[in-house]
TrEMBL record:
This is Peptidase S9A N-terminal domain-containing protein. Residues 15-206 form the Peptidase S9A N-terminal domain. It comes from Cuscuta campestris. InterPro entries: Pept_S9A_N, Prolyl_oligopep/macrocyclase. One of its GO terms (molecular function) is serine-type endopeptidase activity. The lineage of its organism: Eukaryota, Viridiplantae, Streptophyta, Embryophyta, Tracheophyta. One of its GO terms (cellular component) is cytosol.
Length: 218
């Protein structure tokens, strides 16, 4: 990694983040500056430009590492092996997550008996062509009739919860948006599930999270 170390002594120009001193919050009479709040908007042209400059700087350093490709190949080979997670039971079915080796996301399988034939129940790798949609939460009802799972896009903390009927893998119309940092817990009768979500933002997006019960459609 000697060449990478040497790269750090080269003349590097780090992108400058604009400081907006006009932004501040008033907490009980105390003004707390937040000069870089504009960076919290990932869709603004200014944020995109700043991120792109960071990427360019990073790439300019990493490309000087003469062992980077060899190291990447070695790590890829070491990580390329089947990975099983601990199976669990819900209702009369068995479930487990499995990764064949280098899949971006683990796949959820289901089978009727410990020695039965396993079938793919949910493959997060099919959520998007570019791999930017990820599985964030996954909960099966007590009777193994329903699967509630959350998806997020581009690394966002915001999650959308969807529901699948396990028997025929049919997607139900149930959808819950504006969920963040929440688990999903089914009721014992499998008629609904509990979750936490924020109200859809109208003004200030920093709103209080609330607990909710969602009843599934039959």
């Amino acid at each position: 990694m000697g060449s990478l170390t040497q790269a750090f002594v080269d003349d590097l120009t780090y992108p400058i983040a604009r400081r907006d001193n006009s932004v501040a919050d008033n907490y009980h009479g105390v003004l707390v500056p937040d000069p870089y709040r504009w960076l919290e908007d990932p869709d603004s042209d200014e944020t995109k430009e700043f991120v792109e400059k960071q990427v360019q700087l990073t790439d300019s350093i990493l490309k000087k590492c003469d062992v980077r490709e060899k190291l990447g190949d070695k790590l890829t080979k070491l990580y390329d092996f089947p990975k099983y997670e601990v199976p669990f039971i819900a209702g009369d079915k068995y479930f487990y997550f499995y990764n064949s080796g280098l899949q971006p996301q683990k796949v959820l399988f289901v089978q009727d008996t410990p020695d039965g034939k396993a079938e793919i129940l949910l493959d997060p790798n099919t959520f998007s062509d570019d791999g930017t949609v990820a599985l964030s939460v996954c909960t099966i009802s007590e009777d193994a009739k329903y699967l509630a799972y959350g998806i997020s896009s581009s690394g966002s903390d915001w999650v959308t919860i969807k529901v699948m009927r396990i028997e025929d893998k049919d997607a139900l119309p149930d959808t819950v948006s504006w969920v963040k940092f929440s688990d999903v817990s089914w009721t014992l009768d499998s008629k609904g599930f509990f979750y936490s979500r924020y109200p859809a933002p109208i003004g200030d997006p920093r709103q209080v999270q609330g607990e909710h019960l969602h009843k599934t459609f039959k």
